[in-house]
Each structure stands twice: as C-alpha cells, then as structure tokens.
Design brief:
The chain is α+β, with helices and mostly antiparallel strands. The protein folds into 2 domains: 6-196, no CATH class; 199-271, Alpha-Beta Plaits (2-Layer Sandwich). It has 10 helices and 4 strands; from the N terminus they run ααααααααβαββαβ. α3 runs antiparallel to α4 and α7 (151-170) runs antiparallel to α8 (172-197). The two termini are 23 Å apart. The model has no long low-confidence stretch (mean pLDDT 85).
Amino acid sequence: MKKFDNKRFFLINIGILILAAGLYFFLIPSDLAVGGITGLAMVLNKFIPMLRVGTIMFIGNVILFIIAFIILGKEFTGYTIYTSLVISGLIDVLDLMVNLKAPLVDDIILNLVYGIMIQGIGMAIILNQGTSTGGTDIVAKIINKYTDFPIGISLLIADVLIVVSSIFAFGIDIGLYAFIGITLNSVIIDKFIAGFNTRIKVVIISEKEREISKYITHEISRGVTLLYGAGGFSNKDKRIINTVVSRKEYVKIKKHIKEIDPKAFIWINFVNEVLGEGFSY
C-alpha cells in the first residue's frame, strides 16, 4: 500500500487556501469571471442569486466528474476530487463567516491583478503537486476527445466561452477585464511552476576534482558525472564535474569549493525540470 504523503497533502491545502482567498476577496465580489468552474458559477449566480457561488461550484464539479467518468472513461485521482470539492466548500464557508458585500478595494484593475496573482500562486502550488482543481480541465479533455484541438487550446476555448458568457451577465467592460485575467492567470501559473521546479546545473573545473566529487556525492547526496576534456591553453587533460542541485545545495557546494580550491572554475545554468532516478524534481 502506497504511503500517504503528508507533505503533498499539506501543500495542496495551502494552495487551496491561497486560491480561495484570491477568488473570494478579489475576483468574486468584482464579478470577474476569469474562466474555470468558478467563472461559470459566478455567471449562474447572477441569474440564480439564491444559490451561493460555492454551492454552484460544488454542483458543477459533481456533474463534470460524472460526465468525465461516462464520456472519458478516466479515473481521476482522489486529490483532484478532494481539491475541487474543498475549494467550493471553502468559498461558501468564507461567505458565511465574512459575508463580503463589496470588493476590498474600489479599483477593478487592482482587484483583477491581485486576485489573479493570489489565485495563480495557489493554483501553481496545487498543479505542482500533480493534481488539479477539476472544472474546465474536464471540459477541455472532452473537447479534445471529439476534436483535433490539443488540450491547451481546448482549455482556452472552455475558458473563453465562460468569459464571453460573463459579458452578458456583467457587461462588456467586466468581460474584457476577464479576458485579460485568463491570459494573466496562465502566465502567472507557468512562471510560478517553473520557479518551484528550478534547479541548478553546476559545471566545475578544478585540480581538486576528486575531493569535490566526493563532497557532492557523500555530503550533498547528489550524483556526479565526470566529462573528459583538455585545457585550450595548457593542453592538459582535465576532468569536468557535472551535477544538478537545488539552490541551497549549490550554496554549500560553492562554499566548499572556495575553501579547498579558490582557483576552481565554475559556471551554472538554471533548469526547470530534472528527470531520472534519484533526481526527479
């Protein structure tokens, strides 16, 4: 039986809290339906005010999961179901506890920017843990199944349809702001996910190659690959150390190298993804 991942569960819940805060305090009170099941719930809430946004999200997600099981024949992870249902429930809980009647600030641009930033950070944390919030992800997969559109385009189509519907519910100005929102949201999510996963490729040329390699493998617990080269000026044979580490690990390695070989030549590259046994980030 697979061991329950407490860290992953904790981070997913942190992402849920951040995402819900961005929605409830900035986007929902400003009528900014920036795609997703939340945007659809906001539009429907405009015409069915007796149903809370969170309640509509819950109903919508349940319906979408049922449709997904029937049409797609896919099994969605417990985390995805958990995430989508908890977000909708949390929105309702916040509405009952805070009962916010108006946006925190009057400037719609500020509400859009801060709402999207906060929501995007929360979404990035959730996606980075290998799950999602359901919603239009499911719609995108259905569109993809019956058309030649790739998932990314299918997701954009689903979100654009919701944003267009928001024009009829909240007016053209709000709808146009929402178009900006879905674009900004995708950029923020991509940037934050890349930031979470960024690692450093370190290349080292040193006379103390054995000591440095031993330090990296034994003290840092990272793998090392040795490449063979020659100095362009001296024509001496050299062994070049290659490794991929986190930022914190790089600081330790750099400090150690300075202590044992101040003349060592080091250069680094930032990489967004590393795959392989023992090195999957």
